[in-house]
């Protein structure tokens, strides 16, 4: 299943890049995040409780950013497991300047198993876009909060 999503930030690209690499921003932005720890070789281990449409349950996941080309591109590798099934995703994250801000474009190839697979691509695509929207909105809010705390 392929998922495409874009989100525009009202912040400069370098700032968005910096905070998309920040463990605290990520932890505070992931929907339903119960835990978020950095492991070996830049792999993050997260536990998330999700309840979006038919997708409900606790997921444990491993997330890693690879092929970084600061401040414009990285590839996100995600493996997740939960009662409703498993998720294996590769997402290309492109950050493009748009005037005073930046547009983040996510193009992901996602494979799901278990109950998640039986839900259907159309529903899963909609659920994924809701989760991405929640993440990016929370990330922007967290970035602005961090900036206000560091700016006198």
What structural class do you assign from the helix and strand content? Answer: alpha+beta
Strand content: over 45%
**Roughly how much helix do the residues carry, as a percent range?**
25-40%
* Shape assignment: globular
Distance between the termini: 46 Å
Unreliable parts? none
* Helix-strand pattern: EHHEEEEEEHH
Oligomer type: single chain
Mean pLDDT across the residues is: 91
Number of beta strands: 7
What can be said about the biggest beta sheet? 7 strands, antiparallel
**Which strand order does the major sheet show?**
1-7-6-5-4-3-2
Describe the structure.
This protein has 152 residues and is α+β, with helices and mostly antiparallel strands. Helices cover 33% and strands 49% of the residues. The chain is built from four helices and seven strands, in the order E-H-H-E-E-E-E-E-E-H-H. It has helices at 13-20, 23-29, 115-119, 121-150; strands at 2-9, 33-38, 43-52, 55-69, 73-82, 85-98, 101-112. A seven-stranded antiparallel beta sheet has the order 1-7-6-5-4-3-2. The longest helix has 30 residues, at 121-150. The radius of gyration is 15 Å and the shape is globular. The model has no long low-confidence stretch (mean pLDDT 91).
């Amino acid at each position: 299943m392929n998922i495409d999503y874009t989100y525009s930030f009202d912040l400069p690209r370098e700032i968005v890049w910096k905070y998309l690499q920040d463990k605290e921003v990520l932890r505070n932005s992931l929907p339903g995040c119960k835990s978020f720890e950095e492991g070996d070789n830049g792999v993050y281990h997260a536990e998330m409780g999700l309840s979006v449409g038919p997708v409900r349950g606790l997921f444990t996941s491993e997330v890693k950013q690879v092929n970084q080309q600061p401040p414009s591109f990285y590839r996100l590798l995600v493996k997740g497991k939960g009662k409703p099934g498993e998720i294996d995703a590769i997402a290309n994250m492109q950050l493009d300047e748009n005037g005073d801000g930046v547009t983040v474009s996510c193009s992901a190839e996602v494979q799901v198993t278990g109950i998640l697979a039986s839900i259907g691509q159309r529903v899963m695509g909609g659920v994924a876009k809701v989760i991405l929207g929640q993440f990016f909105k929370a990330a922007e809010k967290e970035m602005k909060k961090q900036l206000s705390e560091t700016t006198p």
